[in-house]
Amino acid sequence: MQRIYPTRRQAVAALSALPLLSRAALAAAESRLKEAAQRLDIRTGSAVNFVNPVEDDYLALIARECAMVSPENAGKWKWIEPTPGNRRWGAMDRTVDFARRNGLKTNWHTLMWQNGGMPEFMLLPEVDRPSDHPAYDAYYSPDGTLSVANYWPRYRDFTSAIAERYKDIFYRIDVANEPFLPHGSYTPDDLIDGNGFRKGNWWHVAGGSSGPAWMDRFFEDARRQFPTAKLVVNEFGVEAVHSQEREKRGYLLDWLEGAVMRGCPIDGVGLQSHLSVRNNYDEASMAAFARRVKELGLSIFITELDVDTRGLPDGTGTAERDRLAGDLAARHVRTMLENGDLKEITWWGISSGSSFLAKRGGEEALEPTLFDAAFNPMPMYNAVCQVLEAAA
């Protein structure tokens, strides 16, 4: 039977009336996902957003199914230091404390973000903005004071403060987040350099015009301050057959090959993996990509997995929508597992009640992850577990 979707207001009201599983009931349930992954030396994880209140039952679910947590917003520079010297650590402290109390590892997301997550003072001065095109909004601000002279002292001060507060506790660190940009109608070509980098705030001040080695310095500093963390470049939009995703995948792989040759202290690539059922998954190319990354001695970290089910043909029922989401997630995990050195599978919220995509995507995207808002497993949970169990 085809499901008739309620309005957003009706859905929220209905969800608020649902009985929640107790923490004891959640803790007593079998941790099938975590155990299957651990047999393969893979860590499962979830984003958690302690910037806002987080319900206890959701935290119990994460403790049951995951081996790590990623701060959805609490580690972003924009949240920690909105103005120079005004640091607020509370949300990240709660993230680390939750992980420690439950025997989980913590990731850091993110240090240097080319496409957002920066406070206004870490953007370029608005007077230097070359165009009023909205694509430049992420890099320029009337309050921006970032420059060639101050970017490195500011960056070192920020990372040193993190190291002083938390020491070398992080499993993975997204050193560079979303640095690449493919050509396309949504952005001016002059925002992309010959190596595929966004010509954003960091590119301008850190020597992006000098060539692809400009990001190495950030990894070298992260290695000094966090010697045991897995250091990655974290990127989205590389998994589909779309020409822009193929182009970005090529830029990313070229940089990885060069970074290894230069001796850049990088441990792997973070694939955000915000997948979509309406975009054909490029299994053959992703398998080749994973094999090449492995040949380079690098690992693969799936860092922000979810599946967007919008755009399916009219009349697609709920059960079919959920099955397709599960099949796509499992297909991606299997491709990375069989062809690369897969070390991590982290969802960007393991229940739809805490999923960024579910909140943003509307009624068609209410179930993009492992569990629904009442913490019932979705078909994706069983599909991914089956892939991991078969491999083990």
Brief overview:
With 392 residues, the protein is of the alpha/beta class. The chain contains 14 helices and twelve strands. The relative contact order is 0.13.
Describe the structure.
With 392 residues, this protein is α/β, with parallel strands linked by helices. It has one domain (28-391): Alpha-Beta Barrel (TIM Barrel). 39% of the residues lie in helices and 15% in strands. It is built from 14 helices and twelve strands. Strands 1-2-3-7-8-9-11-12 form an eight-stranded parallel barrel, surrounded by six helices. Strand 11 (299-308), helix 12 (318-339) and strand 12 (342-347) form a beta-alpha-beta unit. Helix 11 runs parallel beside helix 12 (318-339). It is globular, with a radius of gyration of 21 Å. The two termini are 36 Å apart. The relative contact order is 0.13.
Helix count? 14
CATH homologous superfamily caption: Glycosidases
Q: Spans with pLDDT under 50 lasting ≥5 residues?
A: 1-28
* Percentage beta strand: 5-15%
| Class derived from helix and strand content | alpha/beta
Tell the overall outline. Answer: globular
CATH class: Alpha Beta
List descriptors.
disordered N terminus; eight-stranded parallel β-barrel; two-stranded parallel sheet; 12 strands; about 400 residues; alpha/beta; TIM Barrel; 14 helices; about 40% helix
